[in-house]
Amino acid sequence: MTSQALVRRPRWAAAAMLAALVAPCGLNAQPAQTSQSQPWLEAAPLKRIVDSSGKTEPAARGVWKSRGYGWILAIDETGVTRYQDGVQCYTPPGENGGQSTMDSIEYRFFRMLPGNRAAIFQLLEGDTNVVFDRLDRLPARCTDAPDTSPQAIADEFLNAFAQHYAFFDRRPPGHEERAARLRALISDDMSEAGLWDALAAYMEGLSDSHTKLIGTIDGERRRVQDGQGSTLPMIRASQGGEGAWLGGLIDQAKAKLGDSAHHEGQDRILWGLIDGPDGVRIGYLQVFVMGGFTPGEDFSSDAWAAAEMAELNRVLDEALGAFQDADAVIIDLSNNRGGWDRVAKALPSRFTDSAFTGFTTQARGSGLAPFPNRIAPADGLRFTGPVYLMTSDVTVSGGELATLAFRQLPNVTQVGGTTRGAFSTPLAKPLPNGWLLELSNETFADEAGNVFEESGIAPDVALDIYPADDPVAGHWRAVEQVAAMARRRTPAD
């Protein structure tokens, strides 16, 4: 069998019928295309902003203002300066690699649009299309020293939510009610701790794990983040906490899989074979994070991206090679904490023999149509037989994007619990005093336009993956229930 071979198994009528009920109509239908709302259709080829010698591409030089996102970029011969474009315009304070992953990344590529007055900027090839328009000059206000008074910080904080947060319709109460409460708390003589508490009160009950406030007060690192679901808070409050739980889950799975168990990709991927007494064999693949498969630390560099995908593909080729005689495959994303969108798309590409739109992306304030994230069949080994996708309320972000894509496939049945309901890539908005706000500004949907933010993606078959009385043993009991489900749908020879 070559690396291009397709592992084929029968498609079951029941799976096709189920998919017809839950998947959108017109799976491969394309929306009407216009250059105004879909500029990526007419964009020039991808170019680097900065070449290997450290010089910028002449065509990229100038001042650029983003559509949505709230950024201004000033690009000269020597590099790129990033400005926060809100109530004030300022360079993010203390930029030294950022306070979070999203705060540390910078655009590396651009695609010029016709007329050279606008361009698409991207972190990596294939990532989110962020359109910037060329300005004649840097706005004068961007050269002023930023106001760091409590009122100015609150204004910047509220403006970020008002301009960019995409989900007040799904996470009531809305912005105006929260903003009024915050404004009533602000005074010129309030302490730094008092200001922090006021901003934190605005975020209380927002139930969005992608929206957070990070900062340091009197040497103490603080973080406000809500929307963790029910399982993780339960685990974190238990004896041993999350570390003991994860260790127990991994040890248990490896013991159950026996000699077939493989724990690879920097311990982010676990796979093996489940053999039944009736001779039915079921492949098992658990992915904990959408990335981090290599020890590289230069997040978002070309070398990092290439190494990550190479390692992922190596592991998947090995696993799917072992699954070639399997009667079904269980893909376990019930503990997937998200990560890189490209990995979220690479997984379902291994379980289809035709291209499809996995999900769409649209940023608030961009004025752009939803961008269709197309998924083509992978070049490596694939499996198109019955697939069971395990999810829970721990499944979040990139894990949910993969779930959106998997649900488009007629051979996939989602089992377990409803996903977390936090899809958007966090938008980093540094405040003038050095605190960092991250919020959800992008709407991810299936091709029919269905949005699952806050509600999460409900399974086709409900199972309790992490029961409160025994969240370790309960997980493998759920795996065995899914395996039994697969066996019932496997015809006798």
UniProtKB/TrEMBL annotation:
Gene3D superfamilies cross-referenced by the UniProt entry: 2-enoyl-CoA Hydratase, Chain A, domain 1, 3.30.750.44
Entry-linked CDD domains: Peptidase_S41_IRBP
Coiled-coil blocks: none
Pfam families: Peptidase_S41
Keyword Signal listed: yes
SUPFAM superfamilies: ClpP/crotonase
Extent of the signal sequence: 1-29
SMART domains assigned to the protein according to its UniProt record, in alphabetical order: TSPc
Record key words, sorted: Signal
Annotated Tail specific protease domain residues: 266-464
Keyword DNA repair assigned: no
Origin: domain of life: Bacteria
Record protein name field: S41 family peptidase
Organism: Alteriqipengyuania abyssalis
